[in-house]
Specification:
The structure is a single chain. By secondary structure, this protein is α+β, with helices and mostly antiparallel strands. It is built from 17 helices and 12 strands. A hairpin with a 5-residue loop joins strand 1 and strand 2. The longest helix has 24 residues. The chain starts with a helix and ends with a strand. The structure holds protoporphyrin IX containing FE. The site of protoporphyrin IX containing FE (HEM) has 23 residues, from helix 12, helix 13 and helix 17.
Length: 412
């Protein structure tokens, strides 16, 4: 028996199938504790789950670990489809990320995200103004979803009124990489591929329409100001724009909703935030640790045999890094199951780490801080009407599908 075999969970239904089982979406944390006890858990399909903070952090910085699914013994990337830089390794990843970053942040556009502070505040306030007269709201539909969508549309230069189109594509794409048991992976991939192609063509056309007519958005910058090292090819542009639009609107919604849910479940913390609004940045970091919007990274592969916590992960096997389990690792965090907005030592894995660490983190952070500040100040006596709420399907991008709240009014 090899070390890998002993690491197998040996339970009927592997640990991963229980983690991805929709029935466990409201509370996956006991499963994550089980995973940490195994260290590394080999699954029946030959993939390896990792759930301890030290090992995940090390793997995220390890050049022997690839984000490119073509390196799998059984490659599961659809051939011929442009894949964005999140699914590529350096040096290709580095080149594409640098081009994408040029209009988004330092060194070329250092003030870009901070400059959006007032605009995001105005969007948040306007959405809350629209809730006047209601005694019941759905925080997701009424606030947490429209806020980041409006922001990413303005940033990229995508017409807000096209949201129903790209939302459908985006949902299909996300379902495509969800390992939901019982569904046909080939069929899911086919449908996802179609959605990705349509979305890419749509965004490519929007960018092309701006060629020679620069406007103040990222799609325009991609075609009109490519920088000294050259810009994207048309397919690279499409793949990057699809990634940014999806990442920009399917993650921050969970950050806002998970934050509101967590605060309403912890009235002392909510009261503290009312009294000391300056704690908001730390509160958002604590949600990114305690209820992270991205729970796991399913697409790493070992480029060579790699030893992880005494287990050999063979070359070409899928490696699944469960960030949310690492975030509650008692070897790294004191009292990890406690939600503590004043926590100081908080190097969570919510935005990943290493070369692929979240590109949009500065934007997501200010969106979360502005959103929660506005909600806490303006919702009078908010109450959870359903706990646990109904969750979105995805085990990866985990958050409530709806969050019904009772409110006594909206203050000015
Ligand atoms: C709370 C909100 C967000 C969370 C929790 C989050 C989380 C993450 C995580 C964990 C990764 C690492 C993926 C990996 O290592 O494979 C990542 C990568 C990425 N994120 Fe985010 N993200 C958020 C918001 C955003 C936003 C708003 C944008 C775009 C404006 C964005 C764009 C990206 C991109 C482009 C990557 C790929 C980076 C690379 O491969 O170099 N994210 N994000």
């Amino acid at each position: 028996m090899t070390a890998a075999d002993t690491a197998s969970t040996g339970t009927p239904g592997t640990l991963y199938s229980r983690i991805t089982d929709y029935a466990n979406r409201p509370d996956p944390y006991p499963l994550y504790a089980e995973l940490r006890e195994h260290g590394v858990a080999r699954q029946d399909d030959g993939s390896y789950l990792v759930g301890t903070h030290r090992e995940i952090a090390a793997l995220l910085h390890d050049p022997r670990i690839s984000s490119d699914r073509r390196n799998r013994t059984v490659p599961d990337e659809v051939q011929g489809v442009p894949v964005a830089f999140i699914g590529r390794d350096d040096p290709e990843h580095e080149r594409l990320r640098a081009i994408a970053m040029r209009p988004f942040g330092p060194p070329h556009a250092p003030g870009r995200i901070d400059a959006m502070h007032d605009e995001i505040t105005a969007i948040a306030e306007e959405l809350i103004d629209g809730l006047r007269g209601r005694d019941r709201i759905d925080l997701v539909e009424d606030f947490a979803y429209p806020l980041p969508v409006t922001v990413i549309c303005r940033l990229l230069g995508v017409p807000r009124e096209d949201e129903p189109r790209f939302h459908t594509w985006s949902e299909t794409l996300i379902e495509g990489f969800d390992p939901t048991p019982g569904t046909d992976p080939a069929e899911r991939q086919r449908v996802a591929l179609q959605a990705r192609t349509e979305m890419g063509l749509y965004l490519g056309e929007l960018a092309e329409a701006r060629r020679g007519k620069p406007s103040d958005d990222m799609l325009s910058a991609f075609v009109n100001d490519p920088g000294p090292d050259g810009g994207f090819t048309p397919t690279e542009l499409m793949a990057t724009a699809v990634l940014l639009l999806i990442a920009g609107h399917e993650t921050t919604v969970n950050l806002i909703t998970n934050s509101a849910l967590t605060l309403l479940r912890h009235p002392d913390a909510l009261q503290l935030m009312r009294e000391r609004p300056e704690l908001m940045p730390g509160m958002v970091e604590e949600v990114l640790r305690y209820e992270p919007p991205v729970q796991l990274l399913p697409q790493r592969t070992a480029l060579t045999d790699v030893e992880v916590a005494g287990v050999t992960v063979p070359k070409g096997q899928p490696l699944i890094l469960v960030l949310a389990a690492g975030n509650r690792d008692p070897l790294r965090f004191r009292d990890p199951d406690r939600f503590d907005p004043t926590r100081q030592d908080n190097q969570h894995l919510g935005f990943g780490s290493g070369v692929h660490s979240c590109f949009g983190a500065p934007l997501a952070r200010i969106e979360g801080q502005i959103a929660l500040t506005a909600l806490i100040r303006r919702l009078d006596n908010p109450r959870l009407l359903q706990d646990p709420p109904v969750y979105r399907r995805s085990p990866i991008l985990r958050g409530p599908r709806h969050l019904p709240l009772g409110v006594s009014g909206i203050t000015d």
